[in-house]
Write a structure and sequence with these properties.
heterodimer, A: 445 residues, alpha+beta, Rieske Iron-sulfur Protein, Naphthalene 1,2-dioxygenase Alpha Subunit, Chain A, domain 1, 2 domains, 7-stranded antiparallel sheet, 6-stranded antiparallel sheet, globular, B: 170 residues, Nuclear Transport Factor 2, Chain: A, 6-stranded mixed sheet, 22% helix
Chain lengths: 445, 170
Amino acid sequence: MGAATKYAIIDPGTGKIDRRIFSDQAIYDEEMEKIFSRAWLMIGHESLVPDVDDYFHTYMGEDPVILTRDRDRRLHALLNMCRHRGNRVVRCDDGNARRFMCTYHGWTYANDGALEHVPGESEAYYDALHRASLGLIEARVDMYAGIVFATWAVDAPSLEAYLGDARWYLDTLFNRRGCGTQALGPMKWMEPVNWKTMVDNCSDNYHVPTSHISSAGVQSKYLGRPRLSHKDQFESPNRHVFVNGHSLTFREVSDDTPRYVHGVSTETAPLFQAYHEATLPEVEGRLGAFRAHRVQLGNHSLFPNGVLGFRLALPRGPQRTEFWHFVLVEKDAPEAIKRVIRIGSQANNGAAGMFEQDDVDNWRQVTMASASRLGRRHAQDLSMGVGHAGTHPDYPGLVSERYISENNQRLFYQRWEQFMNAERWTDIPLDPMTARFEGTATLHG
Amino acid sequence: MAPPEQALWFELMQFYIREAWLLDERKFREWLDLFTDDVLYFMPRRKNVPRREAHREITPLGDLALLEEDKRYLEMRVARLDSGMAWAEDPPSRTRHLVGNLLVQPLDGGLIQAKTAFLVYRSHLETDQQLFAGCREDVLRPVDGAWRIARRTIVLDQNVLLDKNLSIFL
């Protein structure tokens, strides 16, 4: 069997998926190597390390990583592993430190990763230790609109190419304003779920009227939010689009369409509308008229494990995922807006979120079914909307005809196959960039 | 006759015992009545920080919290449970709230600060279980002759919350 055909887990014509990918330890181990060791991963946000010597402790897959800002204000993503024996050199969630000392034997690293001090370097090591080659292991780092990404792969394409035309849509949420965004969080909790189900669910608008019926119902009654019925969803003009493994949903809006996001209610809608109108000239300059007026990003995921906004599904074994929930607010937004977004975010998503808490048992039982010998004999069925997606004159990427579709999920698992079957990065295809990025906004803000 | 501080302590301990039974017997509508209409129900995050920076351990109001709710949001949570379609709690969790270590501190304006420690056991579906430990710091206000919770801060003794969700009230 050739390497290129090792994994054929989805039939794109029928949407049948081999369930073993959700529970098999050997497949999981290979995911850590073939996906998490080479994809660009979201690891943090520049606002989490605003000052010189700030650090924020994060993860790339299962590996602990320190995001630092050195004295020259450069960002580093450093494997949190002393090069001597492997102890972590940072145990706090965040802070400010010029150096990190290993609490085992005292090896001390600068916050750019350099090994600065080894106790007994002359007396015990006879000056034979090659300190210069024993710095903390460093990943490649780049940023998109303040969100920090990192990859272990030296042969990975640029972050700009990795995001590709997905950025055309992402800009409408993350890159609207010159002031940039500020990250709050993370809230962290442990879900007994395979990480991929949480990611593919981002494009699953089909589950909303069933899984979230109680939350949508009370929010409609108390906050004047949409009921999100099946009828609403089937008739929705919203769309799905897929680029390079990134699953996006977006809304075609007009200037007086309420920009429904967490925190919007009958009472706060005028506040959001006033903010929208006040910022529209700036957004138009940055994103061009079409995106500023017509496009609003909805639920989305970034390959492999970015889940709906700047939130992370961190794999912790085939049947466990540590979930990190952050909220992003535009830095110069009025305090009243920041407040209702923050409160709405924890009320809807997050560990106690009224929407998110109803997802977990569904997802976990999907994971458990794939661990069952009998269950595994029967494929998952992701056949919805096969053959009903294609290119669109106004929108880059592969666009589904309807909002309720499993097209993005099928493509997500095909992307998974591409990574798992590739020997090197050049074996992984990237969609050509065709979008016209009107306006002044760039990858870096 | 007991000194007034002792009578107050006894009265508040009864208040918290009654609250625990309301929660464990799933009488959430009655439980809601224990809160003032302007309540802030707050559960900050708990961070790993150096001992000398202990002031940063509990995230302040204004940062992202596990819960930052007003009365309306609490009512929405209860109304959701009553819908019969709040799947995280249908079938419902089995909970047991043990509340103790009550410290009472009178504040200005007839308010009282009441601090308690809790252990909450949660069992869900067949074999899921979790033990939550933490403390509650309440500000109580008398409303129509009865104590009502005007502000509740719940501090959990976990960094990464180890449960699958936080669908119960602590």
